[in-house]
Write a structure and sequence with these properties.
Elements lengths: L2 E3 L3 H12 L4 E3 L6 E5 L3 H11 L8 E3 L3 H7 L5 H10 L4 E6 L6 H4 L4 E5 L4 H10 L3 E2 L14 H8 L5 E3 L11 E4 L5 E5 L5 H8 L3 E3 L27 E4 L2 H10 L4 E5 L11 E3 L6 H18 L3 E5 L8 H13 L10
Parallel strand pairs: 1-8, 2-8, 4-6, 5-9, 10-11, 12-15, 13-14, 13-15
Antiparallel strand pairs: 2-3, 3-7, 4-7, 5-6, 9-10
Helix pairs in contact: 1-6, 10-11
Length: about 350
């Protein structure tokens, strides 16, 4: 049975002790809940993969809460990386940095670079400092499933498989951090999030490019966390539509039970089960509510989920991040090279 802890000082002390002893603790961050273990302990890191059912070729992100910890994790901080750290840490930015000797192959899947993030969430920061450890922490869900934005989501996937979860309430942003490599020119963004390409270019003065995976590339060779083909997926098949009119057509033509992810300002028939999402033009609402809504739709038990795909808008990388998560969630299971 997994302990469900509040975020009191006593609970954080319990969680820190579990981590120092090689245990697994789910913690809230400003993006999603992460499943934390001592990044310097290969056995503890291995427990993350076992609990999630995560393949060992998929690298992890290490979370820190001090410059001293950064120096234990990264062997080198380039001038560009330092500019980004000064601008966006603590915050929802992960940088791929040359790994320090103490970071093993189990964390990076044998790669020379390690993903590093300094989270903004006060509970995450307090836990990291209390444990006095850099923490490897992918999202706290079963591999390939919908990322968790509440402690209840964590327990739905991992109850009995991990030691504890710190319940910090719903996460703020709702989708995972931006992941980039500051060592390349142009800077390469591997996963879009709340830190935009325009923000990165403005701070560094270096042009930015978005990573485009090759269609037939093996997952073992993927260079970064967060770039797999199918991910963030409900158990129920998901079909995407481009507009309200297309959504209405799909509802009318459905020959099987459907459930609908409905923007709150879209009028649609009340007959199919539906979960209200957020205002269509409010990207922050869409990001914040995405994973909770998908989990609720999964619980309905329909044969198909219908969901609108937000349009791409110049300069709105968070909207692009929501698009990315939905596109990956909708990939057919037979094309899932990550499972």
């Amino acid at each position: 049975m997994t302990l469900r802890l509040d975020c009191s000082a006593q609970s954080i002390a319990i969680a820190a002790t579990l981590l120092r002893n090689g245990g697994l603790v789910a913690m809230p961050t400003e993006t999603v809940y992460g499943l934390a273990a001592n990044a310097l302990d290969a056995s503890a890191v291995g427990s993350i993969f076992a609990a999630k059912g995560r393949p060992h070729w998929d690298p992890l992100i290490v979370h820190i809460a001090s410059t001293a910890m950064l120096n234990k994790v990264a062997a080198e901080i380039s001038a560009t990386a330092q500019l980004l750290a000064d601008a966006f840490w603590p915050g929802p930015l992960t940088m791929l940095l040359p790994r320090a000797e103490g970071i093993g192959d189990s964390v990076t899947a044998g790669r020379a670079l390690v993903g590093v993030r300094w989270p903004q969430h006060p509970v995450a920061q307090t836990l990291i400092l209390a444990a006095e450890l850099p923490l490897a922490a992918p999202s706290a869900n079963r591999f390939g499933h919908i990322s968790p934005s509440t402690a209840a989501h964590v327990l739905h996937d991992l109850d009995g498989r991990i030691d504890a979860v710190l319940d910090g309430g719903p996460t703020g942003i709702g989708v995972e951090s931006t992941v980039l490599d500051p060592n390349t020119t142009p800077i390469t963004i591997y996963r879009q999030g709340a830190v935009s390409a325009a923000d990165v270019e403005r701070v560094t003065g270096v042009p930015v490019q978005l990573f485009q995976p090759e269609p037939n590339r093996s997952p073992q060779s993927l260079p970064s966390p967060g770039v797999g083909i199918r991910h963030y997926a409900p158990r129920t098949p998901l079909r995407l539509v481009e507009s309200r009119s297309e959504l209405l057509e799909e509802i009318a033509a459905a020959s099987q039970p459907v459930a609908v992810l409905r923007p709150q300002d879209w009028a649609i028939p009340t007959d199919p089960p539906q979960v209200s999402w957020g205002a269509w033009d409010d990207t922050a609402q869409l990001a914040h509510g995405l994973y909770a809504a998908l989990r609720e739709l999964d619980r309905i038990g329909s044969s198909l989920i219908l969901a609108p795909l937000p349009d791409a808008r110049a300069g709105d990388d968070l909207r692009s991040a929501v698009r990315d998560r939905l596109l990956k969630a909708a990939m057919p299971a037979e094309d899932d090279r990550q499972s």
